[in-house]
Amino acid sequence: MHALGARRLLCLDETGSIQPVFSAIVQQLARTSLLAGLPIRLLRLISPSRAKQLASQREDWDGQLHQLFDVGHYLGCHPPSSTEVSPLSHYLAAGQYAGLNPHPLFWSDYYATQFAGGFDGLAPWRHFAESGGNPNPFFVTRWYTRQPGAGRHHSNPLLDMLAHHRAGDLPPDPNPLFDQAWYVSHHDCRGMLPLSHFLLNNASLPTCAFLARHPEIAPMNNSGGTYLPAFLRQFASRPSSVPTAQAPSTVSRHVHRIAVCCVVSGNYDIPQPLSHRMPQADYFLLCDQPPNSPLDGWSLIQVEPIAGKSAQYFSRYLKMNLLSHIPMAENYDAIVYIDANITMLEDIAPIISAFLASTADLGVIPHPFRQSVYEEAATIMLHMRESREQVYKVLEMLEREACPPTAGLFEMNFFSLRPGLAADQFLKDWWAAFQQYGNRDQLLAPLIAWKNGTKLHALLPAGQSVRNHPAFQYYPH
Fold it and tell me: Residue 33: is its pLDDT beyond 60?
């Protein structure tokens, strides 16, 4: 829609500058009250959708666009060829349809990518004014609106931030990884809004103490150190390289005894029926109450819930104390844990046999998107899966323990254990850390494995997980 409108309203000279195609008569009409009636009536006959667009533009001539529009920025990036046309008129007539930005903090093309269904005939800025959304990758509206002081000056988050700045106040932070108080104390903003200063410096400066302490996770690319690729991908860059997948030269033909364990607590997860059953495996469902309907193939182990604790907490307790609840756990060659929202579609015996053919005590899936616990922490905060304060608490502990980025990152929704002292110690320490630092067990597992020197084995090749491997079906929580 925007490209078509742009072709109708503007053309380009040899240097690529935008040239309005309004005739002198139309420009004169734009300066008179005739524009208030005649063009709209004509457009309604010729093109109702374009009439709707023009009407929406007129309605906001002195409204929210006026507050958002940055004349200096627009002239610097897209100078009109004629001085007779004001920058705002130029933007309304042509720029908005060409995807030009009315303000350095409003990225029209980026905003449009968030709404695949289109804007019902509205330009991006107009849709933003009415419906909201993230105006750029570094401004998380959902985060901003939850901060103290948000909405004090304006109901639109971005306009509220700009109004805070005009009033001489430090606005609420635009995202969990942008600590404005820290930013202004470490960078000379010269009176600019911190986020504007950051973008003016090619989005290359650290925005909080955490990112400053971990430059290895910031740029996430090899072309100049900008944070933009990291924020666009939510810190998803490349698979974890720890542990390295090592396929054994031969896999034992010995039939191993395997215990497959699944945990269900309250309504936190719904157990899945067995789609494939290995004859050499026993299947145990650990739960606080029997499921509503019988699940063929699973042996039920009911465990008394922990008083005063949530279903999620209790499920983590069962997950990290498997060896205490599986009958005769020491008699199994491997204990396999799988989340209740994952179904095994194929025989996983080759995966477990490869683990047992190694010397590892713990088989894990290297994270398919992120390299380290520090990248994962950044993602958790950006997705607002946990409070910034809680994640910082865990990060302070990880840094205090000197956990290196090379400790890796694992998806702990499917893992295997070799019963013995090493596996028992890993689970014991993992649970102790979870009790103290809570909720995000995935952030704690690499630290415990690294501190204990636990021997690791990659259950799946780099980049693969239960979400895309043919042996599994993953159901989102």
Answer: no
